[in-house]
Amino acid sequence: MTGRALLMWDESVTMYDFGPSHPMDPVRLVLTMALVRACGLDRAVDVVAGRPAGESTLRLVHHEDYVAAVRAASRDPRAAERSYGLGTPDDPAFAGMHEVSAMIAGQSVEAAEALWRGEAPHAVNFAGGLHHAMPGSASGFCIYNDASLAIARLLELGAERVAYLDVDVHHGDGVQAAFWDDPRVLTISLHEHPGTLFPGTGWPEETGGPGRGEGSAVNVALPAGTGDGGWLRAFHAVVPELLRDFRPQVLVTQHGADTHVEDPLAHLAVSLDAQRLVQEACHSLAHECVEDGRWLALGGGGYAVVDVVPRSWTHLVGIAAHAPVDPESVVPSSWRDEVYARTRQFGPGRMTDGHTRPEWRSWEDGYDPADRLDQAVLATRRALFPLRGMLP
Description:
This is Acetoin utilization protein AcuC. It comes from Streptomyces pacificus. This protein is an alpha/beta fold. The protein has a single domain, classed as Histone deacetylase domain (Arginase, Chain A, 3-Layer(aba) Sandwich). It is about 35% helix and about 10% strand.
């Protein structure tokens, strides 16, 4: 093991582009990599381009007819039929769609393979985390589910326990669906309540398929408006205990930045600083709970493409590289110049939202039956923990 983290990056991923009016603006990837370089983190990791996922790899999760439909829509977007979730406002067809989606998927799969072989302790693919894609359809801006494909490859290589943790504001429904009946994969998703946000799933009662899969899916449905204190309280009330019990051989995490208070598509009120604390917690849990600290960290959603996403994922890269960025540090002026040149917006001035250590109250400090956040956490613990032989 080299001891250096991997950063999966190829300029071609910026071709994942649904068009100028779509919220999934690829400039968020461009600006993230630019900030990583401006902070010098590209010298603290091994930057690896990766290869596109081939047909046999894609079919570890996706149906043959769906892959064929993506290929066809990629060749001729104007002739694409509105089927398999393609050609919709969320997932419009575009030229080269198959190729760039396969590249993003291949990067996550290659990162997982490298971790399993012991070539690196951690790996980051912030272009990945496309967690809504289903085995037979596109969904929620996601064509191929790179997280599911990486996990499926790990299982194929012999992994017996893989944990998937999703802290995107939207439920990690595609990954949950892919492993609904598989006790080798523990999926944990913290997300805005399905009653107020797409995709409308992720209720605490969704605990895995009947029989062997029961107890393998964990869902924490957070009330709209949840801020730093509640988000951190919910995370620590559920995630560490489950990971310590499960003892995964690899930890895969998805770090959608759309929990942020400024995100235009959701209703949580989390700061960049709380996002960084959860990234740090994931890193610590990987070293505590996982053999050799194997940790694959992915991006995901995030539509405040200048103010939030690049800083959040740059912190993620720094943490994975064991070279964390000081949240009080000033954002390099060269990066702010690039932001203005590309977007005509002024970039943020520091790597913090202004409160570097948000306060939160641990679950052990007591349960407030009148608090909606505590009600949500308790609903998850009551539904899931007994299935795993744990006290709610």
